[in-house]
DNA sequence: TCTGGGGTCCTAGGACCC
DNA sequence: TCTGGGGTCCTAGGACCC
């Protein structure tokens, strides 16, 4: 708990949907819904125009379509979101070396750290508050300039209050919660406002007659611990009374890497289930290797037709990033799971991540790998793997939201496709709403394209974004 | 209306060791 | 022969967050 509001929480407004609107001029001011568009998709983000109709994150896409049939429905473009996120994070790092990202569109910043923090240290309470407010407003303006997007900011003496502040500031606002006013601010709000209180905990508390944060604060810590368990009860009591001393932490280690797939229709063929587990294991290892990590525990996740979900895990003697080892372990775990009735989701993960370099691992596993490859023999690409689904007819697939370009009409994006046709809106982020044309799906002139930047903004010299590709890769890991 | 995909943290029981 | 307690690791599940 600090006596000045120097913890900043930034939250981009309706991030994915806002990026799409900034990218596609024809969608500005219109309802936009980003998420999985398949039969089992859910909403990732709805624009404010769509929220008016009751659409919100985590809602089944089928439900959203009924509530808001005229919205633009788009697949997420994570590559672009990551690029925009990098720009925002760069701007945050200009405020302080202590930046803690929570996701692509959210982060804490400790304004009391670093050079600017030392400047604040010499000031009185009112001056610090005014300076923090000025910093936050300048930040919001810079983000708008660099990305064309709006962000909301909370300033407070703790993480909890800063986060609740940014929520209260939405959209496109700033809320400062003066230290000392925490309990008044929190008291009347629902327990659901508190970090870590979801549907289950809220229901638990409701049955005990507790619905507001003030009521949590009045309940003794011992009682909360009895109700919710040691860690949860204690932290809830602290938060409700405004006590929160969690520091802003810049570098957090990844603890696990996993991939999972929900299938459009349940898998009933056991061979197909085995095949999909092998594919997921490969994808998981690819991600593991991209991160330069290896892990000891392989986890298999299975969700049945009725949504019951189980995990099976096995811990190896040493960390691995070997696709063969992960695949074999996942396959072994699968053999202990009954899948009659149908499988809705499969997942493969690796936990217990180690910092072992690939070289160490290679030495450790060279023998085993060599032995396995020998056993597997050659002839790998000869026949399709057992369980592989029948090959699709080679028709080009265009996904709603996808970037394309055409030599005559220029850059654009796919609105929809079907019946051998694809509908494309030809426009660019910095232009006016463009025209819509319908082309043949097989039209060779239409090609997939990379997303265009939202603005002509370029990172300032010396920032991580502008630096040489390898600069600071290891350098800032252990910075104190 | 029928529920994504990527994570984190906590709890609890059993094995195993000292 | 009966009965300790503590610590750590592993496994499984659940709640929660974005």
Automatic annotation (TrEMBL):
InterPro entries: DNA/RNA_pol_sf, DNA_pol_Y-fam_lit_finger_sf, DNA_pol_Y-fam_little_finger, DNA_polymerase-Y, DNApol_IV, Rev_trsase/Diguanyl_cyclase, UmuC
PROSITE patterns tied to this protein: UMUC
Membrane spanning residue stretches: none
Lyase listed as a keyword: no
Localization of this protein: Cytoplasm
Single GO MF annotation: DNA-directed DNA polymerase activity
Region Disordered: start-end pairs: 369-417, 440-480
Protein EC: 2.7.7.7
Cofactor: Mg(2+)
Entry keyword annotation includes Aminoacyl-tRNA synthetase: no
Biased composition, class Pro residues, residue ranges: 458-467
Keyword terms of this UniProt record: Cytoplasm, DNA damage, DNA repair, DNA replication, DNA-binding, DNA-directed DNA polymerase, Magnesium, Metal-binding, Mutator protein, Nucleotidyltransferase, Transferase
Binding site for Mg(2+): 11, 105
Domain (UmuC): residue spans on this chain: 7-198
Active site residues per record: 106
Pfam families attached to this UniProt entry: HHH_5, IMS, IMS_C
NCBIfam families: PRK02406.1, PRK03348.1
Protein name per the record: DNA polymerase IV
Species for this entry: Streptantibioticus silvisoli
């Amino acid at each position: 708990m600090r006596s000045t509001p120097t913890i900043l929480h930034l939250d981009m407004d309706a991030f994915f949907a806002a990026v799409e609107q900034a990218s596609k001029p024809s969608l500005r001011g219109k309802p936009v819904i980003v998420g999985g568009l398949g039969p089992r998709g859910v909403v990732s983000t709805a624009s404010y125009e769509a929220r008016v109709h009751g659409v919100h994150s985590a809602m089944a896409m089928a439900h959203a379509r009924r509530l808001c049939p005229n919205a633009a429905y788009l697949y997420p473009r994570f590559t672009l979101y990551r690029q925009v996120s990098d720009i925002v994070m760069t701007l945050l790092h200009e405020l302080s070396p202590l930046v803690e990202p929570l996701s692509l569109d959210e982060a804490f910043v400790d304004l009391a750290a670093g050079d600017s923090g030392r400047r604040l240290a010499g000031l009185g309470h009112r001056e610090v508050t005014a300076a923090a407010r000025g910093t936050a407003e300048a930040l919001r303006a810079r983000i708008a300039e660099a990305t064309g997007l709006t962000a909301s900011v909370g300033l407070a003496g703790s993480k909890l209050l800063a986060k609740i502040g940014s929520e209260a500031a939405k959209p496109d606002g700033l809320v400062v919660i003066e230290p000392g006013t925490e309990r008044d601010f929190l008291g009347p709000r629902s327990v659901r406002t508190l970090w870590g209180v979801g549907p289950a905990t809220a229901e638990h508390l409701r049955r005990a007659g507790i619905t507001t944060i003030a009521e949590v604060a009045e309940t003794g810590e011992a009682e909360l611990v009895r109700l919710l368990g040691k860690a949860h009860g204690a932290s809830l009591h602290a938060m409700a009374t405004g006590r929160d001393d969690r520091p802003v932490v810049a570098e957090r280690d990844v603890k696990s890497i996993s991939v999972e797939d929900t299938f459009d229709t349940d898998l009933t063929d056991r061979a197909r289930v085995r095949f999909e587990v092998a594919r997921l294991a490969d994808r998981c290892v690819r991600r593991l290797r991209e991160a330069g990590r290896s892990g000891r525990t392989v986890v298999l996740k299975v969700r049945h037709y009725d949504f019951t979900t189980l995990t099976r895990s096995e811990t190896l003697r040493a960390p691995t990033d070997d696709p063969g080892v992960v695949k074999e372990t996942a396959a072994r775990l699968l053999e202990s799971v009954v899948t009659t009735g149908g499988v809705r989701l499969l997942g493969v993960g690796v936990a217990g991540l180690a910092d072992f370099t690939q070289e160490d691992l290679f030495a450790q596993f060279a023998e085993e790998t060599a032995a396995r490859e020998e056993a597997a023999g050659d002839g790998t690409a000869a026949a399709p793997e057992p369980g592989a689904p029948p090959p699709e007819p080679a028709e080009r697939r265009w996904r709603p939201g996808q970037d394309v370009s055409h030599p005559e009409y220029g850059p654009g994006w796919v609105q929809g496709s079907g019946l051998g046709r694809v509908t494309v809106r030809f426009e660019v982020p910095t232009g006016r709403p463009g025209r819509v044309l319908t082309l043949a799906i097989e039209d060779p002139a239409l090609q997939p394209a990379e997303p265009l930047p939202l603005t002509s903004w370029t990172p300032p010299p010396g920032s991580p974004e502008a630096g040489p590709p390898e600069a600071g890769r290891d350098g800032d890991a252990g910075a104190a």
